[in-house]
Amino acid sequence: MKIGIPAVAAMKTGSTAVQKGQLRANNPMANDPNDTAMWEYPPESLLADGPKEKADRGDIRKNADTIERTLESFGIRANVVEVNPGPAVTQYALKITLGTKLSKITSLSSDLALALAAPTGQVRIEAPIPGRDMVGIEIPNRGLEFVTLKRMLTSDILRHAKRKLTVALGLDVSGKPVVADIGKMPHVLVAGATNSGKSVLMNTLICSILFKTTPKEVRLILIDPKRVELTGYNGIPHLLTPVIVEQDKSLSALHWAINEMENRYKKFAEIGVRNIDGFNEWSGFQALPYIIICIDELAEIMAYAPADVEDSICRIAQMARAVGIHLVVATQRPSVDVITGLIKANIPCRIAFNVTSMVDSRVIIDMPGAEKLLGRGDMLFIPPDQSKPSRIQGTYVSEGEVNKIVEFLKNKNVAAQYTEEVVNTR
To answer: Closest by alpha carbon to 201, among 423, 375, 411?
Structure first.
């Protein structure tokens, strides 16, 4: 027996507990997204511990003295009051005298890099450190400390995260784990040069989700025009469609997502709920999964149909959060014809990896800084509720680890059930 909308309206006069009980009783086929009794999650043993080497930060005391003496030679009195050792950089936090202009300090980055013999020839100055009355000078470590996915998944902050869409990002400049809830982002734009870490980040986000969700809770649409980054996920039960590599099918998937968004809003309006969480609380209904659309190279599909792709991405970004549809969009071409003004305006959450110029940095995060990143996962993260970026050493997951996770999910759980309409919508 199915419950129609009039029946639901009638039940709304009762208590929430009674409504839910009636819904369950009258709809035995109700899909509870938390019913994971038959689902086998990937074990953390599939992941490698990674190299044991710690970061080589050089002589910290000598560096602190050099910073103070160099600034003093330019008439700036400052004291290093705190050192934050991170996996890729070490941050020296300075207290400066009252009346010192921050612009005077930021203009000395090249002079400080010379005095410190910085390994990459560059230092980054954060003036001020967000939420603190200090200036941060970030010096690249002489040896990098890898941040493995296993390390992040076993961290307290991720292990105790209640939201299913919480994913690992990496470690900040003080070595603390940083995570993010895709549901709150609610969409993210990723850009950086080749081999800077974009595709590894995409794999990290996907694997973070695969370790803690079932296909009843989260479904994925993976778009990989380059055909080399995401095709290895073919066959996992979370996919709504095989990994999309054709440009026309990529556009069809975006159109399908818009139709799905509109259909979900109609369902929400019929029963009087505002978002996917409210809808899924009515467990007599078929619970709706979150849908995450990952695009590994935006430039490829923008070249195919720029106006249509831009319009589709903007519509999803503007309206799809409440219905549980989220975008993760990456590109290695941070130019204004790929990351347009409309796309930027509708996706406030950004992640910038190393880029070749200050102009590219401004396209991604509206400020310079990304051109001074070190590559190999070094990123600047701007969440939607902040205007200044946080520096993070991104989580690393190898191709071999991804393959193990995929094989486990394909062998231990149900076969993938695809929705053909995803790539056939026009």
So the answer is: 375
- Sign of the CA dihedral running 140, 144, 145, 146: positive
Under DSSP, the state recorded for 391 is: E
Collapsed DSSP state (helix, strand, coil) of residue 162? coil
Domain spanning 44-51+146-423, CATH class: alpha beta
Handedness of CA 355, 357, 363, 365 (dihedral sign): positive
The C-alpha atoms of residue 223 and residue 201 are separated, in whole angstroms, by 15
Q: Order of strands across the sheet with 290-295?
A: 177-181, 166-172, 390-394, 378-382, 349-352, 188-191, 325-331, 290-295, 218-223
Beta strands 177-181; 89-96: pairing state: unpaired
Domain boundaries 60-140, CATH class: alpha beta
Cite the residue boundaries of each domain of the chain with CATH code 3.30.980.40: 60-140
- Residue written as token pair 């899909």: 31
| CB-based contact 199:191 (threshold 8 Å) | no
pLDDT tens digits for the chain (426 residues)? 333 333 333 333 333 333 443 333 333 323 443 444 588 999 999 999 877 777 778 889 999 999 999 999 999 999 999 999 999 999 999 999 988 999 999 999 999 999 999 988 889 999 999 889 999 999 999 888 889 999 999 999 999 998 999 999 999 998 899 999 999 999 999 999 988 899 999 999 999 999 999 999 999 999 999 998 999 999 999 999 999 999 999 999 999 999 999 999 999 998 889 999 989 887 655 789 999 999 999 999 999 999 999 999 999 999 999 999 999 999 998 989 999 999 999 999 999 999 999 999 999 999 999 998 988 899 999 999 888 899 999 999 999 999 999 999 999 878 888 999 998 877
Buried b (16+ CB within 10 A) or exposed e, 289-313: bbbbbbbbbbbbbbeebeeebbebb
Place of tokens 């400020």: 367
